[in-house]
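Justification of resources, computational component.

The compute hours requested in this renewal are based largely on the per-chain cost of generating structure records like the one below. Each record pairs the submitted sequence with a full structure-token output. That output is archived, and it is also reused by downstream analysis tasks.
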Amino acid sequence: MRRPALATGVFAFLVAAGAPLVAGADPIAFKLLPNPSRASFKSDAPLETFVGTAAGGGLAGTLVADPAKPAGTSGQVKVDLNTVSTGVSKRDADMRSKEYLDTEAAEANRWAIFDIKSVDIAGPLQPGKETPAKVRGTLTIRGKSVDTVADARVVYIKLTPEQLEGGQKRFGLTSDNLKVRANLETTFTNHGMQVPQLFFLKVNNTIQLETDLTFVKQ
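The structure output for this chain reads:
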């Protein structure tokens, strides 16, 4: 799903406008901003590659993070698997069926959940500067949890009252914001699903997950 050009331009401006970080900041409670956030998964098989995407109301999440000490970040990100679209309705229905995600009959399987356990990151977050990080956590899909590590890039966006009143507030932004892009891999078999031998050339057991998330101060 392509993000609106306006939203892309807004964040380009914000990265350029970041102000110096105030030392000794307290932990901040953040919530996920559904738009322009998105999450996607990719299956890259020998005969077919497809991508499923969830956005808007299909995403939820919270973080507690201190920009001065981001290694102590905790939180959770959830993706509503019933909202994931690959662009082919028959394939989407098959993915939600009992043989795979089993989300339509079993409400407990509806959400893919990533619980953050720890973050490996060098030093404090500097507003406007992208910082790489390793996010360690537990990924739960179809009731099966696995420990995993996501490669992430984080941008802390600090806005002044003038910037907010100048128009940024209408995009849902606040005085403190985080832009988090991350990717990780898992497999169908990790989560109790088996790709039938008949389809192994069209569906890869390995699932590549990617997120592009915006969090704002609660």
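The chain has one domain: 5-217. The radius of gyration is 18 Å.
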